[in-house]
Amino acid sequence: MLRPSILLPTCVLSIVSVAQVMNPMAVPPALDLDTFDLDVDEHVVNFYPGVNTNTYGASAPYLGPTLILHRGDTARVRVHNHLGQVTSMHWHCMRVPGWADGGPPREVLPGESWFVEFPVNNRAATFWYHPHPDGLTAEQANFGVAGAIVVRDSVEAALDLPRSYGVDDLPVVIQDRRFAPNGNFVFAAYGDSVLVNGTSHAYVECPAQVVRLRLLNGSNARVYQLGFEDGRTFHVIAGDGGLLAAPVPTDRLPLSNGERAEVLVDLTGMAGDSLLLMSFGSELPLTVPGSDHPLWESSALNGIDFAVLRIRVTAPTADPVTVIPASLVTVTPPDEADAVRTRTKILAGMGMVGMGMFTINGLMFDPAVVNDTMLLGTTEVWEIENISNMAHPMHLHGGSFYVLDRDGAPPHPWESGPKDVVLVDAGASARIIMRFDDLSDGWPFMYHCHNLMHEDNMMMLQYIVVDPNTGSVPVRPEAASIHPVPSDGRFTYRCPFPPEELRITDTIGREVHRQGSLPQRGELTPPLSPGTYIATFSTGARRAIAHLVIQ
Ligand code: C2O
Ligand code: CU
Ligand code: CU
Q1: Per-residue pLDDT at 479
Q2: Residue nearest to atom 3 of ligand 1 (CA)
Q3: Fewest beta carbons within 10 Å, which of 43, 185, 451, 510?
Q4: What is the DSSP string of 135-171?
């Protein structure tokens, strides 16, 4: 069954009449910079001609640029919040220390900026960034704040893989959106229109050779069952956190919320032809959001097979990749024998996709409660058991895990690399193994369902990683703010309490300035040379930090 993917409210006739026109897929600019600026702001976009839709974007009207990072380098990003509400930015799910993770505790208030700097420890892979403020993640992501991150490394660079961004290596961010009659997005579990990189009815021109698609499910709740209209075999080369040991041939790939997969599609000899990337929603089990479960929210895309992206094949490039490599990288999951403990996480609850009440071990998110404490450098097995009425894409911050098994059987072959989202169906279980290598350092890591409706409805808990050698459980610092970032040496600050002391340290912790009793807010011009610093305001047991960049 193949129906068109355009399903707007029928009252919007002007939209429907033009909607069959195919639009060239937007390819976000790939930025390879020393410091990135992400301006989170409000915009208006015409997804359909003449129809204004209010959006948010990150330095773009909708979505944001692709950030190119290099393993071993330092990533630096300034996030500027121009919204009228609090935001934050999460580097889903790169290996970063807790303070840089951008989860709910790490708020960026309206009008403020956040400077973050972290070593790029991940292998070559496709990550993404999105806001993560408590209770507002889904809404802000729904409005359009998200973007891809491409990590490159020397191991990947030595492989004969397509990597000309925008030519044979393309980000494909898949989102379903529902439009109200006035053109605005409806914030709901399901949408009825498919956007690819923010383009409705998208087509993309690809050369007649092996091309690489970096697929990301950026939808609120819908799970996609991806494949091609002609049932052809394609090859999965990477999952969420890195390349697989060898390309995995398949004709179907389920992709749940937050999940990524890199696939190779061989278009050799197809110049002039075209090919349709589809979601075979009719194949989804009833328990998986996107099926046409009769008791759940309805959407015209539920339970049907629909078009995602049309690929129009053009002439090959001068230096095409024409062969799918036989092997890729060495994948070394932690050894189960090294696991120091097993934790069981039970997903429970009943409800509809966007309106359920779901819990993890009977608990819901409480920012004041740390649910689990890990010891730095140790490995654990987590057994995720789903006794609720629907599938949940479970996600852990703080790095990548590996799927050990599903209901005791080996995971899907394309799940054999590093991952950070695992879709666990109703009545099913999965065991994952993870090594905790980054300190939370006072800023807890989250673990949650990546169905954004569930996440914002508190299906989220948090853990900390402590150093067993010091044994200390650090107190979470509060946030001070500093303006502007960067500054020319003179800046204003605001502290949540009257500080007795201000210490300014450089990024490796050396003190460069110290001064005593200050008002709660004021202006400072400390003698600092250009660079990046951390300002720590303190009094008694309270501590508030802010980042400082002097140009
Ligand atoms: Cu995609 Cu908690 O994140
Ligand atoms: Cu994450
Ligand atoms: Cu869920």
Answers
A1: 84
A2: 92
A3: 510
A4: TTHHHHHHHT--EEEEEE-HHHHTS-----BTTTEEE
Residues 344-378: tens digit of each pLDDT: 999 999 999 998 899 999 999 988 889 999 999 99
Q: What is the pLDDT of residue 13?
A: 34
DSSP alpha helices (H): ranges in 427-485? Answer: 452-456
**pLDDT (tens digit per residue) in 246-287:** 999 999 999 999 999 999 999 999 999 999 999 999 999 999
How high is the pLDDT of residue 220? 97
Instruction: Report how far apart, in Å, the C-alpha atoms of 541 and of each of 477, 500, 533 are.
Output: 10, 11, 22
93 C-alpha to center of ligand 3: Å?
A: 18
Confidence tier at 21 by pLDDT (50, 70, 90): confident
Answer for the pair 221, 353: CB distance below 8 angstroms, yes or no: yes
**Which runs of E-coded beta strand occur in 267-378?**
274-280, 305-314, 339-350, 357-360, 372-375
**Residue 297 confidence (pLDDT) above 90:** yes
Q: How high does pLDDT run on average in the chain? A: 92
Nearest atom in ligand 1 to 460's CA: 2
Which residues have CB atoms below 5 A from the ion given as ligand 3?
392, 449, 451, 454
Strands (E), 325-449: 339-350, 357-360, 372-375, 379-386, 392-396, 402-406, 421-424, 429-435, 445-449
What tokens appear for 528 in the block? 């600092």
Give dist(CA 254, CA 53) in Å, integer.
Answer: 30
Token pair in block for residue 222: 């819908």
Protein residue closest via CA to atom 1 of ligand 1: 92
- pTM, two decimals, is 0.85
447 has which bridge partners?
Answer: 396, 461
Phi, psi for 173 (deg, rounded to 5): -95, 115
Nearest-atom number in ligand 1 for the CA of 447 is: 2
Residue 335, Cβ density class (10 Å: 0-12 exposed, 13-18 middle, ≥19 buried): exposed
